[in-house]
Write a structure and sequence with these properties.
By secondary structure, the chain is of the alpha+beta class. The protein has helices at residues 2-17, 19-29, 37-41, 73-79, 113-128, 138-141, 155-159, 177-186, 191-196, 214-227, 231-243, 269-280, 293-299, 359-372, and strands spanning 50-52, 82-89, 92-98, 108-109, 250-252, 265-267, 284-285, 288-289, 324-329, 333-338, 343-349. It has a single domain (31-372), classed as Beta-lactamase (3-Layer(aba) Sandwich), CATH 3.40.710. 37% of the residues lie in helices and 13% in strands. The strands form three sheets. Strands 3-2-11-10-9 form a five-stranded antiparallel sheet, sandwiched between helices. Strands 1-5-6-4 form a four-stranded antiparallel sheet. It has a two-stranded antiparallel ribbon with strand order 7-8. The radius of gyration is 21 Å and the shape is globular.
Length: 374
């Protein structure tokens, strides 16, 4: 009897000691549940470790004349479970709404839109000479990657998702590599250790384009090793504070304080639109060149091998016109840019069928229909 009581006490003590980890793991496992996904995507800081950044002094986006949105727009919003959208034309807000019980003040999870923000940071640091050139090997910047599947991979290869690493990116497979990485994050373990433990290649580096999010984490490792700084600290200093965001953003982090740079950035929808406007303006913001114009141009045109429509962590749409590019994240997060028409569209969503056939093409068609109206 006494032995059983001791075991119960020990079990309770262990439960209390690991309480936060257990709660985060439960959050991961129910993150995309139909009855929770909308609220979860606007409150990630309640479920994960985070690092807040300063927003700077906000300069409100001006209001422009209301846009006439294309036929079928309301049906599209409902079908895609859109939670918020902001449309800018010539730098002015011409359409905006917050749906499904969300608010303008909400900070929304970027998912892979964060990759494109990291690309902007790399371009800034590259011009400063603070990070290695694109043909440098990641192992030389990050010795912990020596002997891993990233040994022999160039920075250019991780920027273009052509590292050749074998990595299962299936978000709907519980046992996939990307979901295992999510559990590493939730349990407060080291994402750097997870990256360094990758030991299998599917192809030689720089030969085949395959979208694998861990490449972006390795890019973040290079930035941290080269600068001795955190990614949130650098983004705050080089981009967010000078731009003057409306809300103080935050990153999800692991238990070692490392930012989840491949998808953990949380911004308001207006601030996602600001990022798009920065790119539409060639990296310039209120007369100041924050991101080198050459980097914006280079990173937003196809750079990946085999003709893949992928730049340096930016997507180039099929049949893209001049200046047409987008950042994209799972479950319907988008920043669409049409520089020729001075149009930026930021969309946040909680669309559980985001991978269904025709969904991506339908979203692009809607963005183009909106831009065509100007």
């Amino acid at each position: 009897m006494r032995g059983a009581l001791v075991l119960v006490v020990l079990a309770l003590a262990a439960g209390l000691w690991k309480r936060d980890e257990i709660l985060r793991l439960i959050a991961v496992n129910s993150l995309f549940a139909e009855d929770r996904i909308v609220a979860n995507f606007s409150s990630m800081d309640r479920m994960f470790l985070t690092r807040e950044m300063a927003a700077g002094t906000a300069a409100p986006l001006p209001q422009g004349p209301p846009a006439e949105l294309p036929p079928g727009f309301d049906d599209w919003l409902a079908a895609r479970n859109v939670t918020a959208y902001v449309v800018l034309q010539d730098g002015q807000i011409v359409a905006e709404d917050y749906l499904l019980g969300t608010r303008a003040e909400d900070l929304r999870i970027s998912w892979s839109v964060a990759k494109s923000a990291l690309s902007l940071l790399y371009g800034i640091l590259l011009e400063e000479g603070a990070v290695p050139g694109l043909d440098s090997l990641v192992r030389d910047a990050v010795p912990a990657l020596r002997g891993s599947a990233y040994d022999g991979v160039r920075i250019r290869d991780v920027l273009t998702m052509s590292s050749g690493i074998a990595f299962n990116e299936d978000y709907l497979d519980y046992h996939s590599d990307i979901n295992r990485m999510g559990r590493v994050l939730a349990l407060g373990r080291s994402m750097d250790d997870f990256a360094a433990a990758q030991d299998t290649r599917a192809a030689d580096p720089g030969v085949v384009w395959q979208y694998v999010s861990i490449d972006t984490h390795v890019l973040g490792m290079v930035i941290r090793a080269a600068t001795g700084r955190s990614v949130p600290g650098l983004l705050q200093e080089r981009l967010f504070a000078p731009m003057g965001l409306e809300r103080a953003p935050y990153y999800l982090i692991d238990g070692h304080g490392v930012a989840f740079v491949l998808g953990g950035l949380n911004l308001s929808t207006r601030d996602f639109a600001r990022l798009g406007l920065l790119v539409a303006q060639g990296g310039q913001w209120q007369g100041r060149q924050l991101v080198p114009a050459d980097w914006v141009a280079e990173s937003t045109r196809p750079q990946a091998p085999g003709g893949a429509l992928y730049g340096y962590q930016w997507w180039v749409p099929q049949g893209a016109g001049p200046g047409e590019v987008l950042a994209r994240g799972i479950y319907g997060q988008y920043v669409y840019i049409d520089s020729a028409r001075d149009v930026v569209i930021a969309v946040n969503a909680a669309h559980r069928q985001f991978r269904a056939p025709g969904v991506g093409a339908g979203n692009l068609a809607m963005f183009r229909a909106i831009a065509d109206g100007f």
